[in-house]
Amino acid sequence: MGIVKQAVIFAGAPVQPELQPPVPQADLYLCADAGVRLAQALGIVPDRIMGDFDSLGDVPAGENVEAFSPEKDDTDILLAAKYALSAGCSRLIFYGALGGRLDHMVANLQMLRFLADRNAQGILVDHAHWITMQRGGTASYPRREGMYFSLFAMTERCEDVTLEGVAYPLCHGMFSNAFPLGVSNEILAETAKVTVGKGDLLVMYAKD
Question: How far is the C-alpha of 1 from the C-alpha of 177, rounded, in Å?
């Protein structure tokens, strides 16, 4: 297995910088539009700043800035995600992508499938959430104190799902995107083991 290149992308949702989880080491730090404010507040110097800058209000100065027209199909955060993919990153961690406008948040959840289609993993984080998507296979997730562990079908069905190490285990079950079967589970062991035979499963840690 080769080395996984990691990018951290800052978006412009209204979050409190002092509450955000520590920013990990990364090969690339990107800002999408007003995400530059969050990066600055967290002491991160971005490698690139991109977007239409309608949220920020003006175009920052600098050779690492790329401005786009507001009349575009891609959201600013998706522009940054595409740039990270083009740079060879396959693990993308997003700050400031939750807690703002609901339509933007839904778009960011959909983006996790876009990334999976390109053999990359997206992770959305803030002070109360850690969210990713699992496309088939088996994965382990550590217990996080004070956080619920919820699972939702992103495809019409997630088949042959097995959950181990949790309060409500499941053996070769099925999740549907029409019924929230997996909400508010809890990890009891050091790690939970999640196996998905077929389908895209949204994996979410959430605090009260």
Answer: 33
